[in-house]
Amino acid sequence: MKLLRLSLFVSLCYFLQSCSKDDTPQQPVNPDSGFYVLSEGAFFGNNAKLGFYSNATGTFAGDYFAQQNPSNAVLGDVATEVFIYGAKMYVIVNNSNHIQVLNPRNGTLIQTITFPTPNKQPRYGVGANGKILITAYDGTLNVIDTTTFALDHTITVGLNPEGIAVVGDYAYIANSGGLNFPVYDSTVSVVSLSSYTEVEKITVGKNPNAVIADAAGNIYVSILGDYASITPKLVKINTSSRTITNEAPIAVGVLRYHNNMIYATGGYLGSSTVQLINPSDLSIVRSNFVTDGTSIVMPYGITIDETNGDVYITDAKDFTATGELFCFNQTGAKKFSFSTSPGVNPVRVAFVR
Amino acid sequence: MFTCYFQSFCLKQLFLVLLLPFGAFAQRDTLDEVVLHGQTIPKEQAFPAQHLNKENLNALNATSVADATKFLPGVLIKDYGGLGGLKTISVRSLGSQHTAVMYDGMVWSDAQNGQTDLGKLSIENIDKISLYYAQPDDLLVPARALAAGSVLSLQTSAMKKENSQRNIFGIFRTGSFGLFNPAFSFKRIFSNTSHKLSGEWMKSDGDYKYPSFNNSGEKVKRINTLAKNARAEYDFTFQPTDSNKLHLKLYYYWSDKELPGAVIFNNTDADDYVKDQHAMAQLSWKNFVNDKSSFLLNAKYHYLQSHYVDPSFNNVQGKLDNNFHQYEMYLSGTYAYDFTKELSAAVSTDLFHNKLNRTDSFAINFRPVERLTMLNALNLQWKKKYLMVQGGGVFTYMKDRVNGVSDDKKEQVFSFFAGINARPIHQLPLTFRLSYKEAFRAPTFNDLYFTLVGNTALKPEDANMFNVGATYHYKSNHLLNSFIISTDFYHNNVQNKIQALPRQSLFQWSMVNVGKVEINGMDIQTEIRLIPFRNWKLDIRGTYTYQQARDVTDPAASNYKQQLPYTPEHSGSAMLQAKRNRFSIGYSVLFSGYRYRQGDQIPDNFLEGYVIQDVKLTYQFKEKFKFNTTIFAEINNIGNQQYDIIRYYPMPGTHFRLGFTINHSSIFKN
After folding, report:
1. pTM to 2 decimals?
2. Taking a contact as any Cβ pair under 8 Å apart, which residues of chain A between 218 and 277 contact chain B?
3. What interface predicted TM-score (ipTM) does this complex get?
């Protein structure tokens, strides 16, 4: 009996000790880790902002770019995208017609990529095969080398391309044709990443915008329609057959895929809440992702932390006041939020591990 | 995600159109004013008014009406820079669409965007600028002069009574940034009739330098700024007796302006331009029939064309082209009757029809729009020697038609106005005034029908204006020959303010009746004239405005009770004119306190205040063969203040203009 009690006691001590923080081997916290919040700024406002939330200090610096760079470095006017690829961070600044290349560890400017033509108007991008693929409103997909920053290829796609997703050896680009209203464009371009040429155009519907990929070789495209008689929809395309497998009459803005679920903002004409959509049949799983009653005035961007499934949603408010960033856990309960001031229209988050 | 069909053109033009409502963001009866030594002493008025006469205008370094109106209190001129740049006026923060601009007695309008670009109106042939903060006091005015929140009245020298029989005037101006600006007028006066022909040509490169906005310290030139415009005007008057006058005016204006746009970091692509044409014929007949009755009949036809091109647009055609045509037909009749020596009344009816059409190939889905407006006004005035009471109302009826089809919607609005002017202590030259006026402005064609942004359910914007003020006018034969000080305190309420709000994205906007603005302000204006001393004549004018213009639309919004964008709390001006024999010097200064641009009031949106000083030197040569010539030199912004009125539309630093004028007046012996 005594031995049992003693062993229990010893086990208990051991158990308790192993629960304490000092004993368990911890993942070292990277002092540079945190996440960036990119704010578009106002049109002609020259106030695109890049803020940084540091895990080490637990604080958010609203204008981190200005803080880390000399006063004559400017981010630009209307930034649409930020992503980290390899050891570099790329900020696409649409109206300034350039891409800022930054060091994600400290936010310092490495290079400004400019374009030979004045009305290139870069929109969105991803990294693949040591290159970054940038869609631009002059109807091109631009392939830029990440070491030399040279423009290796300029591929003609459809009219006014917007979103881009890479599946395997191909990139899929939504050609909105937005500046060609009311005709628009109705295709998704398929570009081979071996030959860097456009191999096919898939017809999807008028004014496609966002494109995302899931883990099974499908892409999902948001179709906005013509804001009049042609109503918005969401389509699912199988990339092997390159055909539309599912369609649903949902108006969406930003799309994200994580762990067999699609997260979508309503965008123009759509729901004012973030919806959860089933990727198999495009049915609405939950019309409001947020479950604890937190109200977001204008959900503008969604970014999901792949490591823990946390959902970061940006709030653009009324597009003139400074915005707000919300972080929710996977069940839709708010973890934290903060103002993105002086950032107006926050749209993207990028994680630094 | 964002369908950006508003890029370049639509957004730039839309931006200009839309930015203006943000708080951001006009007639006369010369017989009643006494002109003393070139200084106008306004008659007692129930509604506040300010004037700039030809002498004041000559002392200013002004090229356009916009430059001169900056020297009137309570005025915010949104100046987008350069000689060709857009300049709009907002009086007491009501918004630019609440000001009616009158040109020689006729209201000019732009039914498409509701405002007049004052940068287009050259100061050259303007004799007098009057700003009525509400409306003119005269009874014999068209109903349209009573229907706006404020009236900016411009009188050309066509309305001036001439002593000579032939008058030839020429002016040539040149200066910084490639300015080339000649103008002339030729007037021939007979016993009953007169003819006047005037013309002007202006070309300006406009490529001024400004400090780069990226703090690099380097100076950059403004690009895409070449502006050209031409104006031709013909005036015919027939005046058989002193009390009966017929006036015909033909007016033509043409301009071709490159649009520099806002400075965008690292993006120097600006190559869009706009070509405008404005042709107008107006006929006016004023007759004081007998000592009780008088009438005023007006007719006007005008055509306005605005042709915008963006030659590097990312669409299949590779460009954007918008060619708008506006037509207006206007008829007005006013009848005034004096019941007794004290009581008079006037009734007026105005009827006008506006049409907007579009002829470019991008006009898919555009349907021509028309508007028929009828105004009926009644104006009563009771006056004794030291007391004047005025009151009345305007009934407005408006009906729109789209593509020839009208819906059930029509606007019927009644606006009331009343004012008192009194001099309670007869010995003291101190008069008080109190007034109330309701005004409204209808949604413009852009507000209602602009592709995808327009909202046909829009209601008019209303404004209620209260004013209390006093004027003290001291005259003496000592050093201080004349001293006028005038103060007004006002409170304005704007409801249903039409604003552009972005919908679900930065690139998609729509017009909504959402705003409420509360304005409290104070204007002080003073004029001092010193008696000629050792051949020196000295005039000083100063204005100061304090304005609290708060957005009170939504208590939950972050801009609740915040000052309207671009509206400073403190602003003012001063003008000094000194004349000795043949030499005169004018010094003028404009100052503005700090402002915020649109958005939260964070340091990022802060715009510093500024002080701009100008000097003008004029020398008049001895008259030779009946020709009077002067030469002048203007040094603008002598302090080289770098500033922008609208963020990222920089204004020029120090720059120069010089020129000469020739004037020949002759009276024929027979």
Report:
1. 0.87
2. 222, 224, 227, 253-254, 266-270
3. 0.85
